[in-house]
Design goal:
Layout: H1 17-26, E1 31-36, H2 39-53, E2 60-61, H3 66-71, H4 74-88, E3 92-97, H5 99-104, H6 108-118, E4 126-130, H7 139-154, E5 169-171, E6 226-229, H8 235-247, E7 252-254, H9 280-284, E8 291-295, H10 305-313, E9 317-320, H11 326-340, H12 346-366, E10 370-374, H13 377-390, E11 393-398, H14 406-414, E12 423-425, H15 430-437, E13 444-447, H16 452-458, E14 462-464, H17 482-504
Parallel strand pairs: 1-2, 1-3, 3-4, 5-9, 6-7, 6-8, 8-9, 10-11, 10-13, 11-12, 13-14
Protein name: Nitrogenase
Pfam families: Oxidored_nitro
Keywords: Nitrogen fixation, Oxidoreductase, Plasmid
């Protein structure tokens, strides 16, 4: 696998950039995603998203054709915006470009300025635009670029940069060990995990056990709301993260919030714009936020939404890994303790203890098993962190994205827990993943549903995570994050391995 032995991409391990932007815009209150490009792009994305979330998904389009590729798509973009205003009455329109409009060089910013000047007498919605050519990224780039565009174009200016001892960037999770990780209290008996030293994973809470925790935050922002930038997680994940933050006494502003817009209750009448999403007033006020917690490593070296809030408005920025598994969730809890000034709630302590107990109980079924992990870089990093602490060895870690520093991130979360670090591949498709994985004899695959054909061919289980999940029901309700999500995911992993062994037995058995 030293080099590609084929030219075309075969079963890509990524999705197109504007698709991610449309999902992000869907998580904003009263918003309509709008693609500046051909009608086929919007139709494809609608169908793809609906198959995973099982929710109707309207995506407007400027519906460009051949003549617009020559003369430009400005008139169609303006006409499309007027039609969207008439039909949907949106509070926000999120305009994302496509390969076509990026290739012909449409200046969307100029076109939108002309639109505002020409139709300023109308009650115009907020319009946010973002550049999302598929030839320059993945759906995750589209998601993160859209979120950054929202913060840069909607957040109101603040009177000055906030001050405080924690006004800088605080990193943790997949980037470094959690603060105070060595002083989490006495370990539950037998809670030492494979590949760790005794007490490295304890059964009690991170931080203090009761009372308050010093935040180090400036008192001038102590009453502000806390912004969470979670990345592309499931609606169930978003609901759980909100619940966790509220348990700490924080009032979270989650951007974007797809917890209701892409997993809505049954309604008597169709709603063209579903209820829910991040309120626009809350977005505008983010310059006065108490802190911002940004999950994953969005955009690599490019400015992210969290970095924009920190640089432009002085909002303290906490960077953590996606909280999948014990240690990454510990780091997230540490951040919430420091922001809120309170210790982890007793309910969270019990959830953590149940997770540790499950890791001990299931160790004999998973220790030494070999896994191939693939998907979005942020989710993959969290999954590797969890697998390594359970005793499962990720042997191949792959993503379709390029330049995301995945090797260093995986080394940070797996180092010290495995005899050898896994092989890491960026910018690959499933043809390349399968070519290499076939020689590594994995016991299971962990990733989205696009890997099923290989799991079937090799006779091993696929534990479905992330996006997309097209061949199973309930992908929008898969819980990955927090102690509760880790426990649910661990149960699925253990049971998948048990089922494979049970099915392969010549006599079968009904008792473990």
């Amino acid at each position: 696998m030293a080099g590609r032995n084929h030219i075309a991409t075969t079963n890509a391990c990524k999705l197109c950039t504007p698709l991610g932007a449309t999902l992000a815009f869907r998580g904003i209150e009263g918003a309509v995603p709008f693609l500046h490009g051909s009608q086929g792009c919007a139709t494809y994305m609608r169908r793809y998203v609906i198959s995973h979330y099982r929710e109707p998904m309207d995506i407007a389009s400027s519906a460009l054709g051949e003549k617009h590729a020559i003369h430009g798509g400005g008139p169609n973009l303006k006409k499309g915006l007027l039609n969207v205003m008439k039909k949907y009455h949106p509070r926000l329109v999120g305009v994302a470009t496509t390969c076509l409009t990026e290739t012909i060089g449409d200046d969307v910013g100029r076109i939108l300025r002309e639109f505002r000047n020409e139709f300023g007498d109308l009650d115009l919605p907020d319009i946010v635009h973002v550049s999302t050519p598929s030839f320059a990224g993945t759906h995750m780039d589209g998601w993160y670029d859209a979120v950054r565009a929202v913060t840069e174009q909607l957040v109101e200016a603040t009177s000055g940069v906030m001050s405080g001892t924690m006004s800088g960037v605080i990193s943790g999770g997949s980037h470094e060990a959690a603060p105070g990780a060595a002083a989490r209290g006495p370990a539950i008996a037998g809670a030492t995990m494979p590949g760790t030293t005794s007490g490295a994973i304890s059964g009690t809470t991170p931080g203090t056990t009761s009372g308050t925790v010093s935040t180090g935050l400036s008192s001038t922002v102590s009453t502000g709301r806390t912004c969470l930038l979670p990345g592309l997680l499931s609606p169930a994940d978003i609901r759980h993260l909100r619940d966790v933050m509220e348990a700490f006494g924080l009032a979270p502003v989650i951007l974007p919030d797809i917890s209701e817009t892409l997993d809505a209750p049954c309604l008597e009448a169709y709603a063209p714009i579903p209820a829910g999403g991040t309120p626009l007033d809350d977005i505008r006020a983010l310059g006065r936020a108490r802190a911002v917690v940004e999950m994953g490593d969005p955009l690599g070296s490019r400015p992210s939404a969290g970095a924009a809030l920190h640089a432009r408005h002085g909002v303290p920025l906490f960077r953590v890994g996606v909280p999948v598994g014990l240690r990454e969730t510990d780091t997230f809890m540490e951040a919430l303790e420091r922001i809120s000034g309170t210790a982890m709630p007793p309910r969270m302590m019990l959830e953590r203890g149940r997770l540790v107990d499950a890791l001990v109980d299931g160790h004999k079924y998973v220790a030494g098993k070999r896994a191939v992990v693939y998907g979005d870089a942020d989710m993959v990093t969290g999954l590797c962190a969890m697998l390594a602490e359970t005793g499962i060895r990720p042997v191949l870690v792959a993503t379709g994205a390029r330049g995301c520093g995945l090797a260093a991130r995986v080394a940070a979360v797996c180092g010290g827990l495995m005899p050898d670090l896994p092989e890491v591949r960026e910018g690959v498709d499933f043809h390349e993943i399968a070519e290499r994985a076939g020689t590594l004899a994995p016991d299971l695959l962990v990733g989205n549903s696009k890997g099923y054909r290989y799991a079937r061919a090799w006779g091993i289980p696929l534990v479905r995570t992330g996006f997309p999940v097209h061949d199973r029901f309930g992908g929008q309700r898969l819980l990955h994050v927090g102690y509760t999500g880790a426990l649910a995911l661990y149960d699925r992993i253990v049971n998948a391995l048990i089922e494979r062994h049970q099915t392969a037995s010549p006599v079968g058995y009904g008792y473990m």
